[in-house]
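General statements about sequence and structure are easier to judge against a single worked case. In the encoding step, the backbone of a single protein was reduced to a row of integers, each denoting a local shape. The record that follows shows the chain in one-letter code together with its fold in token form.
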Amino acid sequence: MRVALSFIRGCGLALVGCVFVVPLALLFVASLHAPGSVPVPGDLWPASPGTRAYQAVFAHVPMAGAMLNSLVLVGLFVPTAIVAGSLGGLGIRLMSPAWQLACVTLLVGAASVPYAAIWLPRFMAFQALGFGGSWVPLWAPALMGGHPLLVLLFYLAARGIPMSQLEAARLESAGWLRIWWRVALPQMRPAVAAAALLATAWCWSSFTEPLLYLHSERSQTAPLMLHALELLGASNWSVLMAASMLLAAPVVLILLIVPFSLNRSVGG
């Protein structure tokens, strides 16, 4: 019976995986068409596949510099979000049950607010502070955990830590930062891996914030360059697909790595 259930679960996971792999495969095939070719319905595989569209991406727009900017921004955003989110989740765990309920309600409410509703107030606030045109508005959400759902994720992970461990560490005169680093964070490794994946995906694919705040071409990120290629028209659709593949590749690579990290964390 257990073997049959494992087989069914494996088939289900494979089916779900195929659903997500098919669009990526179609994207890759589309990027192999020659630049300048007009898309024809039903014409999936090109007559002469090649990588000329990938070369054209870097010829049309400064994609190399934009991808480097995105990587640097992710490198700043993700560690900050993990530190802030895990500290916030542990802090909520240490509160009384009534305050925990209030904080969870606040996090769920904050996550439910339409993102477009806060664009204008945030823009005006950062402009008033003199941060317009810089990366500070793009990095600032990481100081609050990156997203309310990430803080909630860390709180749920922290709930699995017995209070007796935290109290024992306090009796040993350990400070809260040391308890967070030595006691809580090692037990939240699966949450850290999941939060890192989500924060990376959100930051890497962010389009609205760079569009609002980044005015210099040298500071722009990869999604903005993708939008610039979209404006070239249908004759350069293979170039647009190649650029989309370049942006999707890092996230796909992380998706392949994170499950093994989670398995080692749970198994350890």
In short: The domain at 61-238 is CATH 1.10.3720.10 (MetI-like fold). The mean pLDDT is 86. The longest helix spans residues 63-93.
